Structures are given as C-alpha cells and as structure tokens.
Amino acid sequence: MRDDDNLELSRRRLLGTVGAAGAAGLALGAAGGAGVYAAVSGPESPASDATALTTVGATEAMFHGKHQAGITTPLQSRGHLIAFDLAPGAGRKEAAALLRRWSATAKALMAGEPSTDDTGIALDAGPSSLTVTFGFGHSFFGRTGLTARRPAQLDPLPAFSADALDPKRSEGDLWVQIGADDALVAFHALRALQKDAGAAAKVRWQMNGFNRSAGATARPMTARNLMGQVDGTGNPKPTDPDFDRRIFVPAGASGAQEWMAGGSYAVVRRIRMLLDDWEKLPLDRQEKVIGRRKSDGAPLTGGTETTELDLNKVGPDGKLVIPDNAHSRISAPEQNGGAAMLRRPFSFHDGIAPDGTPDAGLLFICWQADPLRGFVPVQRKLDRGDALSAFVRHEASGLFAVPGGAAEGEYVGQRLLES
C-alpha cells in the first residue's frame, strides 16, 4: 500500500506467530467481516500456542499520506473528540512544538507501537484501526499571528433557528478526532495526546462516542443511529468521479488555502436525540418523518437502501409518498443544488439528563471541501421545515480546518506553521 493513498485505508498485520489455522481465519475475516475463531488442539494447549481469534486488532491505518486518516477511514467502533485552547501566552512557536509532539505520538500509536512515556493501557492490543486527525479552529489563527493565512471557508457558521448551543462545548483553537475499533486503544491515544499537550494547551471540551463493533453483523452494513435508523446511505463514495472535488481542498489552491491542499473542513455538531418522544411514534410515523423504511433503509417509494428516492411519486390518496417535510427529501443533494458532504458520525450516551430523559444522540461529523457549499445550504434547508427537527436538539457546534496529511519527515500542519 502506498503511503500517499488513503483510499486504500488499511493493511493487515499478524499479531504474534499465526499457524495455518490462524492464517485461514485471517482470510475468512477479511472476506466476511465477521469474528473468526481459530482452531486449537484442545484444553491441554497452552495459552501461548493459541492463535488470534480475530483480525480486528491487526488492522492498521497509515499516518503519512495525501490526506489525514480518519476522514475516509471506515467507521470505527469507538471515538473521542477533543478541542483544546492554547494556553495564555502560547503562540505559533508553542503550537508548532505541540503539533510535532502530537504527530510523533499519533504515528507510533497508529502503528501499534508504544508512545513516549507509555502508560501500558494498550500493551496487549494491535493498532485496531486507530486514527488520529488534527484540525484548527477559527480562533487558532489569531492566537498564533496567522490571521492572514486563515481560509475564508473557516468563517463562523451562521446561526440556525433550532440551535441551542453551549459555547463551553463549542469551537476551540485545536481539534483532535480519535477513532479505533477497541475502546482501550482509543483511550490510550486520548490519554497520550492529553499528556503531550502539557502546558501548551488545555482541554476545552471532550465528547465520547461509539458505533457498532466490527464483526457484529454477518456482512458489512450501513450503521444505525440511536433512533434505529440506517444512517449514512446517501454518503458520497470514494469511487464517485467528483468525490475528491467535493470532499478535499485541491492541490494548487492559492492564497490562504495553499497550506490546506489535500485537506478538508470538518463540521462537528452534538445533536441530542429526544428519544422518549421519538419512541412514542408508531413505526409508520417514524418512517414518514425520515422518508425511508426503518427495516432496511430503503426509500418509501420502494427498492433497496441504495435505490434513488422517487420524490415525485404519489400514493393512492394523491399525496406524496415521501412527505414534503421528510428528512431524506429535504437533505437530498438534488434538493440542495448538489450540495454534498461526507458524514462520519459517532453515537453518544452520557447518562440521564436532569429532566430524566436520556442524554444521548449523535456526534455529527461531516467533511467537505467548502462548508459554505456543503453543510450550510443543507442545514439552512433543514432548519426551515425538517420533520425530524421536533425530535433533535443541536447543543454544540464547531468548524475546523483539517490540513492534508503529513509527508514522511513532516508533522501535521507544518506547511502552515513553518511557511
């Protein structure tokens, strides 16, 4: 696998010595996506002779490349999102030193290697698809004397009428996304990066999320959210001819965006789902709110999950089969001038809120080459009449410029901080 090709996202590494039975299990796991059990000779076999039961821990994402990992990487089962603010008096020099430390740590941990001053939390695990992704917030540029290099695409998002945003859990100078297929591996990375920050930056906010575990279904499937809906069906695909144009900043960009070549912009929203209200709706009402069948994600107009929406189809009663305020209709690219974004969320559950309702929902993360052409027009349309709005609350928000991947010998953000 080439280091600069992040569309081929991972390679397999064997953990320990794997015999013939283990090698066969690895092949089955790669093909089927389900857990694989290795054969052992019997109860008398010593534990040291057992082969790995699964390939999940052996999957490795590359640190170096044209794009940072964690954007087109398949969804991981565990995630942490953290925003940092630079410490008072810290500027460009301290930020560069911090990104250098963070990049070295991320490179080691993504390869399944120990970090400096390692805590030993993940000693028994492989890389487990660990990715660490770094971004810069709007305020970062003023604090580092780089205002002239701040892209226009990083201008603050407009206010939306349905927002109930907590400023203490929004924005930030620096943003880190951690994803892995093992909870201990993800926490290990979180702890290492927090320690690396030292006196240069302090945590502004942290959010923790999860997805379905690798191998939990008999075949790879689009994830479901906490409402039970298939979520992510209409995502752009790396095989689409216009994928790079929509998701990544092109090479050769001029002016303030030059350092962003190969990068992307991440919109992060903490969306609380009002699950008690949602779960009171009968199934047919839930499906009309979304515009898709809950069982398999297919449009109400028929077909399979990947069948195009028939937005003009009417039923025997003369009404639109997919209601005019259905979420899938309003968010469809053809309803928004072709606006597209790559959604890559995590679910969250932070216990029970003071009002006795679940504090649960979606850590919405979307990627695009330009949020003014991706997220903003779609959210404006949803803000004006999405049937789903009655069942969700946007409680935190952030927009971050995520530069391209680091080349060999570079750290993430070096082209901004040292040019």
TrEMBL record:
The keyword Signal applies. Residues 222-406 form the Dyp-type peroxidase C-terminal domain. InterPro entries: Dimeric_a/b-barrel (IPR011008), Dyp_perox_C (IPR048328), Dyp_perox_N (IPR048327), Dyp_peroxidase (IPR006314), EfeB/EfeN (IPR006313), TAT_signal (IPR006311). It catalyses: heme b + 2 H(+) = protoporphyrin IX + Fe(2+). Pfam families: Dyp_perox_C, Dyp_perox_N. Belongs to the DyP-type peroxidase family. Involved in the recovery of exogenous heme iron. Extracts iron from heme while preserving the protoporphyrin ring intact. This is Deferrochelatase. It comes from Streptomyces lateritius.
